[in-house]
Amino acid sequence: MNRNDDTAAPDIELRIGSWAELGEAAGALRLAVFVREQGIPAALEYDGQDARSVHCVAYCDGEPAGTGRLLADGHIGRMAVRADQRGRGIGRRVLEALIEVARARGDASVELSAQSRAAAFYRTQGFEPIGEPHEEAGIPHQKMRRSLLVFAAWAGAAAITAAGAPQARAGVLDAVSNADAASALRGALERGAAQAVARLGRPGGFLDEPRVRIPLPDGLRQAEGLLRAMGRGLDLDELVTSMNRAAEQAVPQAKQLLVAAVKSMSVSDAKAILTGGDDSVTQFFKSRTQAPLTERFLPVVTQQVSRLGLAKRYNALAGQASKLALLKERDASVERYVTTRALDGLYLMIAEEERAIRRDPLGTGSKVIGRVFGALR
């Protein structure tokens, strides 16, 4: 018995857990939708399977808005979305979460019994009808299945890729269930981007990490010895600290755009990443986010620069360095300099997350990604 929707999803929180953890919220939603709204007898709704199932509850503004469950045998059911929350993509998000749980534990397929009016929605999510339509509790239903075996020729793929044949690699990917591979890759990249932002967007994220720490611009570095000899050493040190603090404040602004880039990724984008070079993920993020992130960072950096009195300190030092013709034009604005270096650090961290995925794809928690990158190494 399933009810769903298929439009743009709001900001929601998805929780996965047992009946003991989520049963109160899930039960209330199902009671409202199935028993009160659809008139299904409570005795049919509560079938004794909940304690042996994995449950998902979607929360909007802290309130339960949608739910579904996954049985041990791979059946998805009890999909319910609160009446006032329908049409916002919540059912799709719950379904995707349950499919990911099934995929991660190694299920070959998932099945469900969809209310006939929702069958078209499930088709868009990769489900195909099996058998004839039937009735459950007096409501027309259609049994549907989605395969989670995304590669028909993984074993051959390893041999092909070892021989170094890019076109053959792309050909192997044509045998992929495109929706599954793209969905799993989106999940891995979204987690990786969030981790990169979290690492940098905290106190010390830039300042205490030598690989991304924002140094003095080249011109000031070349003039550093002279400036310190002139008694400006403390100003130089404070300048470096302030620039890195400004970058740490700006980086959290990147998460929304990075996640949006992942969600916009097409099947062809996914194939390009999977068959591309070792930095294809990083290049994908750069191509989609560098310009808008520059616009997003600049106001935040400018605000921090103003608050910290950084522009005055920078300009005073830069003025002395420029007299020596040591400061490049692109470094003349502290706001632009910090923004550029903050983005450099962010993409460096994304590249590190990409290497981690390629080195240990199973560490993403997705068996699909594990098999994909395993076959393409």
Counted beta strands: 8
What's the tally of helices?
16
Portion of residues in beta strands equals 5-15%
The poorly predicted ranges are 1-9, 150-176, 320-331
Assign a percent range to the helix content. 55-70%
Secondary-structure element string: EHHEEEHEHEEEHHHHHHHHHHHH
Oligomer: single chain
Query: Based on CA inertia axes, which overall geometry fits?
Result: elongated
Biggest beta sheet attributes: 8 strands, mixed
Helix and strand composition category: alpha+beta
Average pLDDT reading: 77
If you compute it from the alpha carbons, what radius of gyration comes out, rounded to the nearest whole angstrom? 26 Å
End-to-end Cα distance, whole Å, is: 42 Å
